[in-house]
Amino acid sequence: MKYFDLPKWTREASLWAEEYFSKLSEQPVRSQVKPGDIAALLPTNPPEKPEDMEDIFRDFKEIIPKGMTHWQHPRFFAYFVSNASPASILAEQLATYMASNCMLWQTSPAATELEERMIMWLGQALGLPSKYSGLIQDTASSATLTAVLTMREKALDWEGLDKGLKHSPTLRIYASSENHSSIEKAVKLSGIGYQNLRFPRTLPNRSIDAFNLREMILEDLDQGFKPAGLVLCVGGTATGAIDELIEPLQIAKEFNLYTHVDAAWAGSAMVCPEYRYLWKGVEGADSIVVNPHKWLGMQLECSIQFLAEPLLQSKTVGLRPDYLRTKGEDQISNLSEMAITLGRRFRALKVWFTIRAYGLSGLRELIRNHVKWCNELEKKFCLDPEFEISFSSPLALFGFRFTPEGFNSEEMTIRLFEKINDDGRIYLTQTKIDGKSTIRFTCGTYITTREDVLIAYDVIAELGKQIKNET
Ligand SMILES: *Cc1c(COP(=O)(O)O)cnc(C)c1O
């Protein structure tokens, strides 16, 4: 295929997209294929000769969409959404045409300067103080790993990078037990070791207990460990748990720990001033991660890492120790100096397009609607005696169990969950709370309407009745 064929095929792709979106709502949300179904349709050997794009495109249409779970479906209520605004999709398309590697200022001046400006815009949009700069990472997992590596090196005065960890003191990281598994992974990969990740008690409101955090730090110091960092969460993945930030961050400061706040999901909601109380004190954190690819419609990969002192991170993961690591005499930034990967996509374009196309007011309305509709739905379950709300969150997330009288509610909840996802009209995920299965509901895609959200109750109640009749 030649470059001059590209417009023809991108037009084909646009026509396909138009049809895809127009029929999306009729498709089952979760792909209904079985393991191996798609692989069976793919040749085992690569073609020796070039194939026509006609054929490739036809196979795409026939094989791929049916094997996809539709994350932009208006009734995708599973995990956390991975949202794509139309403006973001368009920007991604443009970035894809140029296919630049935005590793250094000179390899992409516009991408670098736009990225810095977008970090500034998003900081303002979320109500963060202007001291934060940062970068767009691919995912929160990368941001968290980078932050944990910075915890390690700051504690070792950047000697671990050269000497390794063998003769260094044993470091300790503290984290809320409600944190995402990416924290555990980061601590393992950083060489600090999982047994040195400590979880202070949580309070009844599921926030980390600051008193116990201090006790643990003192105990560790007493035993010759070196406390290095603290990871707090605003919107834990399972149940949306929220750490109170002010006191733990003060304690961290007192003991010179590097701090990271994981607000991957809930951070997007901070475009609305009325939710900012949920991360009160966040300005005390050294590093903060927010994923606009979850709830603001700036599609994967778009994870913003805000940094109070970017130099500490570039000292840790930057390639050139003697080089000016942040904006220096030459007034340029090489953003890959703050990231683990060298190559970087042009991620800032979709941020620019999305913020401009919807305005902050549009983004606020999006979030407010999702929260409002989710609350309405939660109320319906609350009023139905066959269901029990197992957890609530101030944002668009809650959990419920199926508890009809005279039945085993654990068994009924699991069966209902399976039935919902086999049915296909809606898609949810489950979690466990205190050993009990719980069905999670969250919403947040661009094309979701109030009706889409409320219909979830009708579908679930209908399937619940069927299960009771079958039992
Ligand atoms: C989704 C999520 C993550 C992981 O995000 P990725 O960008 O997929 O790495 C981490 N923490 C929280 C709180 C999340 O909700």
The neighbouring-strand order within the major sheet is 1-7-6-5-4-2-3
Helix content: 40-55%
The dominant shape is globular
The CATH topology of the largest domain is what?
Aspartate Aminotransferase, domain 2
Mean pLDDT: 95
The largest sheet is: 7 strands, mixed
List ligands, each type once: pyridoxal-5'-phosphate
CATH superfamily of the largest domain: Type I PLP-dependent aspartate aminotransferase-like (Major domain)
> Regions with pLDDT < 50 over 5+ consecutive residues?
none
Supply the helix-strand structural class. alpha/beta
Report strand %. Answer: 5-15%
Question: Care to describe what's here?
Answer:
It contains 14 helices and eleven strands. The N and C termini lie far apart (58 Å). Strand 2 (171-175), helix 7 (181-189) and strand 3 (197-198) form a beta-alpha-beta unit. It has three domains: 6-68, dopa decarboxylase, N-terminal domain, CATH 1.20.1340.10; 101-345, 3-Layer(aba) Sandwich (Aspartate Aminotransferase, domain 2); 354-470, Aspartate Aminotransferase, domain 1 (Alpha-Beta Complex), CATH 3.90.1150.10. With 471 residues, it is an alpha/beta fold. The protein is globular, with a radius of gyration of 24 Å. The strands form two sheets. The protein has a seven-stranded mixed beta sheet with strand order 1-7-6-5-4-2-3, sandwiched between helices.
